[in-house]
Amino acid sequence: MTAQMHVPSLLSRAGAVSALTLAAVGGTLLAPGAAPEAQAATTAHANKALSIAASKKGAPYRYGAAGPSRFDCSGLTLYAYKKAGKSLPRTAQQQYNKTRHVSAGSRQKGDLVFFHSGGRVYHVGIYAGSGKIWHSPKTGSWVKLDKIWSSKVYYGRVR
Questions:
Q1: Most CB within 10 Å of its CB: which of 8, 104, 125, 152?
Q2: Which of 6, 45, 101, 135 is catalytic?
Q3: Any catalytic annotation for residue 135?
Q4: H/E element, 29
Q5: Out of 6, 45, 73, 116, which one is annotated catalytic?
Q6: Per-residue pLDDT tens digits for 83-99
Q7: Is position 73 annotated as part of the catalytic site?
């Protein structure tokens, strides 16, 4: 009786290990047909957030502002994703901590681009494709499309 009780336990552990391995190599744990819908929803939110950020072109930078007419960097990403139906925390570092981190080769339009130095995230924008981001850079500037100017960036996908 004891041996029979351990067999399901071993199978459960083996199943969990297989599931973790599958997830680690980019597989899906969802039922067949569910992954495309989940991905489509994520992509739809990202595309909407990107469009909203672009619509704010020319809005002046203001430290601590999160819209609708003035923004700092994380205020712009917070605002765009909120309007797209997703919630983000307030600061660039907190947003980085909440996103699913992706490689540069896996980045997609609408992903967040985090600029970092010494392990600290100090700026964020929304990836627009072709190596460019929508962002609100600094005092005296405004929301605009710029080329990514540094190799010290992380990418994050809003879930």
A1: 125
A2: 135
A3: yes
A4: none
A5: 73
A6: 999 999 999 999 999 99
A7: yes
Provide the H-helix boundaries in the chain: 2-24, 34-55, 73-83, 92-98
Rounded Cα distance between 90 and 68, Å, is 15
Indicate the DSSP class of residue 67.
S
Dump pLDDT digits (tens) for 127-146: 999 999 999 999 999 999 99
The backbone region for 130, taken as left when phi is positive above 0, alpha when psi lies in -120 to 50, beta otherwise, is left
pLDDT over 80 (residue 13): no
Can 116 be counted among the known catalytic residues?
A: no
Q: Which one from 45, 101, 116, 123 is the annotated catalytic residue? A: 123
Count of other CB atoms within 10 angstroms of residue 66: 16
Q: Are 146 and 133 in contact (CB under 8 A)?
A: yes
Q: Give pLDDT, residue 18.
A: 40
pTM for this model (two decimals): 0.77
**Is pLDDT above 60 for 5?**
no
Q: How high does pLDDT run on average in the chain?
A: 83
